[in-house]
């Protein structure tokens, strides 16, 4: 009985971790898309565009990492 409860607890924990990784991956994806928009904007300064481009790359790495864990 104790093993069964432990397995249920592990399963619930695994699902919670997967859900958390999915949410974090979606957040990174949204941030990436926002940064891509700034990087492509003619209204943003060159420095802001470069920074946004760098941040978009970092967000893509985060997104990929979270998606692999979910």
UniProtKB/TrEMBL annotation:
Top-level lineage group: Eukaryota
Composition-biased stretches (Basic and acidic residues): 29-43, 56-70
Compositionally skewed regions (Polar residues) per UniProt: 8-23
Stretch list, region Disordered: 1-70
Family matches, as InterPro entries: Glc-repressible_Grg1
Full protein name: Glucose-repressible protein
Gene assigned in the entry: GRG-1_2
